[in-house]
Automatic annotation (TrEMBL):
Protein name as catalogued: Polysaccharide export protein
Organism: Komagataeibacter medellinensis
Leader sequence segment: 1-25
Domain SLBB positions: 188-266, 280-369
Topological category with respect to the lipid bilayer: Multi-pass membrane protein
Record localization: Cell outer membrane
Amino acid sequence: MQRRGHLIAMGGALLLLGGCSSLPASGPTEYQFNRAQHDPRQNTVGYGIVQVSPELISVLDNEAPPRFSSLDADAPIVHQAHNDTVGPGDVLQVSIYEIGSALFSPSSAAMAAASASGTGTTPSPSTASSLPPVSVDGNGTIEIPFAGQIQVTGLTTSQVAEAITDRLRQKSQAPQVVVRILSDIANSVMVYGNVRQPSRITLTPNRERILDVIALAGGENHAEQADADYVVRLTRNAHIAEMPLQVIENDPVQNIVMQPGDRIQVTLQPRSYTVFGASGQVTQTQFHTPVLTMAQAISRAGGPLDARADPNAVYLFRFENASVLRRIGMVVDQNAKTAPVVYQLDMMNPSNYFLAQKFRMQDRDLIYIANSSSNKFYKFFGLISTIIAPGITAAWMAR
């Protein structure tokens, strides 16, 4: 009888274990997670698990996208800072004022004939002549009648006028030249994307900043969207940086002075993250603040559930920059720009709550809160209790 009792107990234990393993679950436990990481048949994308630590937070902070203020240091100013010089593609209006026999006046031939016959001895007043619009060619030169080709790239309008005057002094009596820019291509930036009026914006000697030219392009296309959902991408001399619009508004240092040739793209990128597992709710949540921490993201989902969650195993899935992963010692393909990684946060360690307040969320991050290993055990006993409870109640009532 004693041996039979042991066999019954062992059979019950095996039945219990088999029943527990076959119960449904919302996701893997910490043990299953670690085992799958080392199994090539399950870990087909080659992810690694990295513990959230102060060193990791430092690496992630140092790998932040380049800020606009760094572009002035990395890409030295090529163009004149006053935005008043002439360059290829510009269209100029040239006006020439002359005294006496004028080269450019329609009546100059008649005046010359009158002077030869002796009938027109009265000095003529000054005459003004406006030449047809003059384009600056790809070599940075213009062609002026009686003056020939003149190199004007990098000159101001006053300097261009002086160069034309020097060429005409030997051919005209006291010429005076006035030059103005009709179409300013050299001193302009392109603004496009989610703005109301995508266009070429001409810079002035007032030295417009990035928020100025966005405003001149009509501002954001959807005013109801939060500024943090708009990303400004700046391309300057083959250097690229991007930053949320709200960060530029809140940090005057990032509102840098525009340079001719800059390209600004404004894009609407609503950011979101997803939460799975043993949390208060499985949800996809958008965030509109410039910075959202992991602690804030977990709290918005209700945090780990006391009855189901394993606080030791809170995971964050991300396709991280390859440079970050190399710095923390992970092996990443040399040609890869991003690679999958899983960051693990142990919420049973009180000091990790401080780290969670510094860990910044990114768009499309996925948080998974693992189930406790004992959760299936309690589920199984709950199922058994549900099955046998009516029989026990009926037996008690029969007595």
